[in-house]
Every structure is written in C-alpha cells, then in structure tokens.
Amino acid sequence: xxxxxxxxxxxxxxxxxxxxxxxxxxxxxxxxxxxxxxxxxxxxxxxxxxxxxxxxxxxxxxxxxxxxxxxxxxxxxxxxxxxxxxxxxxxxxxxxxxxxxxxxxxxxxxxxxxxxxxxxxxxxxxxxxxxxxxxxxxxxxxxxxxxxxxxxxxxxxxxxxxxxxxxxxxxxxxxxxxxxxxxxxxxxxxxxxxxxxxxxxxxxxxxxxxxxxxxxxxxxxxxxxxxxxxxxxxxxxxxxxxxxxxxxxxxxxxxxxxxxxxxxxxxxxxxxxxxxxxxxxxxxxxxxxxxxxxxxxxxxxxxxxxxxxxxxxxxxxxxxxxxxxxxxxxxxxxxxxxxxxxxxxxxxxxxxxxxxxxxxxxxxxxxxxxxxxxxxxxxxxxxxxxxxxxxxxxxxxxxxxxxxxxxxxxxxxxxxxxxxxxxxxxxxxxxxxxxxxxxxxxxxxxxxxxxxxxxxxxxxxxxxxxxxxxxxxxxxxxxxxxxxxxxxxxxxxxxxxxxxxxxxxxxxxxxxxxxxxxxxxxxxxxxxxxxxxxxxxxxxxxxxxxxxxxxxxxxxxxxxxxxxxxxxxxxxxxxxxxxxxxxxxxxxxxxxxxxxxxxxxxxxxxxxxxxx
Amino acid sequence: xxxxxxxxxxxxxxxxxxxxxxxxxxxxxxxxxxxxxxxxxxxxxxxxxxxxxxxxxxxxxxxxxxxxxxxxxxxxxxxxxxxxxxxxxxxxxxxxxxxxxxxxxxxxxxxxxxxxxxxxxxxxxxxxxxxxxxxxxxxxxxxxxxxxxxxxxxxxxxxx
Lengths: 612, 160
What we know:
The complex is a heterodimer. Chain A contains 4 helices and 39 strands. Chain A is globular, with a radius of gyration of 24 Å. Chain B has helices spanning 6-18, 70-82, 85-89, 112-121, 136-148. At the A-B interface, helix 1 of A face helix 1 and helix 3 of B.
C-alpha cells in the first residue's frame, strides 16, 4: 500500500513538474493566425466629414487629447432615441478603464489583466471577432498593481495596435491579423512597476511609463521605436539632469531654474525610491514638437521622509518625443503632503485669455485646481478651484506655487490631520479624462467631492511591496453629493454648469459636434447632457459601474455609433470591495463613506454599442 | 515526453525519498533564522484541500507555536504594518487590493500551515514571498495576529 501511494506521488510530481516546466519555457503564448482575414464586402465609402475621419485611433481621439468628435448625427433633439444595438462580455471582472479604438471599421478592445485584445469586425452583422490576442502576463503583477488590475487602452499607428501588459511589457500587434509584431519588456514587476497606462504614439516613437507610486519605484518615461519595439531613450522623472534628460540650453522652465533640480529638491538618496509614476495620458503639439504628460506622487505618503520640493513629482513635463529631451516642467504640488498625483490629461486648446489668443494646456489636477498653462513655456495663466478644496488658499501666479493652509500639512509628527479636501482620490481622477468642445469652448469633467483625514506614519521600503505610510479615511464633501459632472471655462477659471451626482463620477468624457456630452456613473448609468446647458437628456443602465471613457465613430453604414465599457473597478475595487462577488474567500463590508453603492451595481466587464 | 531535465529528476527523487521517513523537514518553530539559506522548507499539509484519490499527501502539519498568545499577536500586528502587509491587505487586514484576511475565509486555506505557507513562500496571484526577509518565528507571529482578528458577526449577508 505504501509502495503504491509512493509510486502515485512520484508520478503525480512528475506530471506537475513537467507542466510547470512547460509553462516556464513558454514566455508568450503564440499561435499563428488560422487564415488571412477576409476582405470586407464592397460597399460605398462613407462620405468624409472635414476635419474628422469618423475614427478613434488613440486614447484621447486626437493628439490634443480633446475627446471631441466632429460627428453630429446624434443631437440634443434626437438623443432620446439612442438605443443599445450590441454588447459583448469581455469575460474579465477587473475595472474597465480606458476606451476601445475604432480603425478601418474594426473595434479593438483591450481588457484589464490578463490584457486580452479583441478585434471586432464592424462590417458584419453581430460584429463577430476577427481574432483575439491572448498574451502571457505574469500574475505576480497583480500583487504590485496598486489599485486593481486595470488597463487604460491602446493606440493605433502604422497598421499596429500598441498597448501595455500589466507586467511591464509593451506589445505591438498587427491590426489586420492579430499577429504579435514585438513584445518589449519596459518595467520590472519585482521592483513594484506595473504598466496599465495607454501608450502614446508620435511618428515612430511609442511613449510609455510605469505605475508604482505606492511601491517606491524610480519613475521614468521611455521612448520605443514603433517598428521594432527597441527602447530608444529612457528619461527619469527625478534624479540628476543626465537621468532626467534636462540638457543645458534645451531645458527652459518658466519658474524653477537651476541644475539638477530632480536631485537638489530631495534629501540624500530619497529620490531613488520616490515614486513619480506615469500612469495617465499623453498629448502632443505638432507645431511645438512637444509631448506633455503628468507625473504622479512622491513616495512614501509620509512627507517627513522626503524633505524638499521633490521635483518632478506632481508635475507636467514637456519633452521632445524624438530623444526625450526635457524642454520645460512645472510642478503643481511641490512637496506633496496629500498624494495629489498630476497624471491627469493635458488637453491642448487655443483660447482667448484676457483678450489675447493663447496656445494653452488645460489640466484638472487631483489637488482640486484646474490649471490653464501656456504650453510653449509652462507659464500658469489661470489656476482656480474646480471643486471644494481647503489645503491651499490659491495659486500664486507670480511664483506658480500654491499658497498653503498650514493646518492641512501632514506628516508622521503631525498626527491625524482632519478633513482635508479634496481626498487623495482627487477633485478629479486622472483615470477619468475630461473632454473639450471647440464648439462651446468649454471643458467637461467628472469630479469627486470627497474629503479625508490623513494620518502619516514612518515606513520602510521593502522592494516589491507597498511603500505608503498613511491612513486616509474619506467622508463626503460639502453638500453630501460625492460627485458632479461639470462644464468648465478654462479661460476664466470658472464653472459654467454642473450636474450633481450621488456618487463620485469616475468616467472619461466624450464631447461631440452634436453638442452632446456623454459620461458614466459608478452606479452603472451612461448619460448624455446638452453641452451648452447641462440639461440631462438621456440615460441607459449598462449594468456595472462606468470607469471607462465613451467614444464615438462613423460606422460602415455612415451612421454615428457610440461605445462605452461597463465594469466598475480601479480604485472602486478597493474602496467599495462589496461590489465584488467573484471570490468566496474575500468578502468585505461596505466602506463607511459609501455604504450603499453595492446595492446598485456589481463588477462585470461589458462593451456596449449605441446608435439611433 | 522529451528527455527529462535534471532538475525534474532531483525533485522526483526528493518526492520518493519523502516517502521513507515522512516529515523530516518539519519546522517546530525554533529560534529565528536569517536569510533564505537558513530557511528549511517546512513540510505542509493543506487541511482544507481535497486530496486526489482520497489520499492526503504526506507531510506533517506544522502548528503555530504562538497560538492564542496575545503578546505574539501584538507583535504580529506591528509587523503587519512594518512589513507593508497593510499596503495591500488594508488596515486591520480588512481587504484592499489584496483580499481581506479578517473575514474568516481563505483562498489558500486557513490552517496554521496554510497561512504560514502563504506568507513565507508567497502565492502566485501577487503575494510576495517573505521567507527571505522574515524569520519563521516572526512569520508565525503574523499568523498569530491574523488568527486573533475577530470575525464579523453577520458575515454572509449584507442587507440595506
């Protein structure tokens, strides 16, 4: 009997080991395309609209990240007839941030981990899949993804779909066949780096960055070659000028001048494990030849462990895409005490400010101020609160620095600092990008009305584990509504209208030439409002809460379509853990500040398509 | 099946030799050890797992030497912060990006040995292995802390 069980154990161990061995030797799952995709049936080409090809080829729709579409078939007078025409379960329950792409009558959907890429044929009834690409993604990345295993989407360029896998890889996939063209390791999971952001493509450069502001990473941005995936340049967000790629004569900041600011604004070696992640969106001005992106928080959250301004955390950086050279930088929140990342989108627009036409960049920071900057120089033209805030009194336009309320400063030595607004979820989350309509001249943003207490504590860094050091419970801000959808005049720095929402609003925004704006809510509604008045005109329950961004395109039949993901998650997978029902070994109570959200929604990943 | 790698042979041999004198690698919770080299893997048995063929795999069931000891639980609670466990599992182990460890439910088993194994060797969905930086003794204190957490009263039902 003993002999038999021993033999069994031996055989079983052999089986298990050979299976494990096979997995280890198979870094990426590859399968050849079964056959060449069939050509779409001949049909008349849709009539082109000037200035808008009816596609959605990059996260923010255009280089300026406006999320504005020139399509105007759906209008305030007919939006009531908007109905769902198709839906698809992604089979994944993590938070569905980001947006699909629509290129050449194909819709591309990247799921959260395990980062499947679906290609739907929009020329055929029922939108059947052309192919799906299922890469290998290291499950260990789940343990260093701070805030759910989300993905913010892909970019299309030169016949390729380019996106990031959670485990520190960027892949390029042939848009027609689904064949993997290259797979480049850009980050190191064991060092706390994950890569959920959407790559941005300018010319032959793919620009990517890591998450890990909660894991003590050393934040960077990399420029990859679109054709080969080779890493051409790496620019760190903190450290000496040689690492930051701030070269004399090229780097011309408007406010902070001097050498090695990424080094001298830190105590000792604290910059080496200081976070400064790049998890948001990127935009590009072709005339100036600059890309713009925001940098996230310094680590740890306990500011006493990192005296100094901590540049260039919580900043916007303007770089040359070709070689990564830093041209200017501006820090929104020096020496961050509140986890106010600046990864939110930088929307480029041409506005008239005090009678002068200006080329500006508009940014809704987590810190609650909306900034309008001269995008050639980095000068702050307007900075005004777009939500309730109390950590600062105002932004001094002469120095560019916030004027602080000293009673809201935090640190391990300051104990539990009460009622700081906004909370570290931000006045607006960088995960939910705003939109700009050149027709109304207004910006549209999903906002969050939460405040927090902040108790910092000394914390040690252990590589590959969280590096946080603060406890920060939330409460609803003034008024009790935890969110609002707002229209913002960035030339004057004032709110034009708002739609109050019971829960924080965490979706991206779509604005159209039909003078409609679309956004989603955490309790699972997709809504349409009049872009000029803010009147709510239409809503549809998509099931799970919306943390993605709606898009629109012109279909093969010439009609206007609209898509959005349902799938609550991201921070809300942590903050309202009771919206999860997929793990019998993980059952949580509701969060104190949002005790009934799970009454209205639950996890679930879906793609919805709408048309008149 | 192609030629077997040498490592596979070694492990198969180890599996066979374990049949002779079961449980030689057991950890009795002795003094603290430092570094991975000093850490002999404890043989473990997953009490709550379903044994294939109805036959439990061999091995002993290491028992937490500090069960119920309040000072050890308090030290474990301190470690839960200083080892950054709360960064993933939340304050009070109530769940954050990592699962709740205070709901009385366990992905990988809630026996002494299973919890020890999760901390010491890690788990494949992102739980780092702490065996290289935590002694076995301190790992047991973390286990003691988690086991000391009070269970919610009306756990399965959430009503509004």
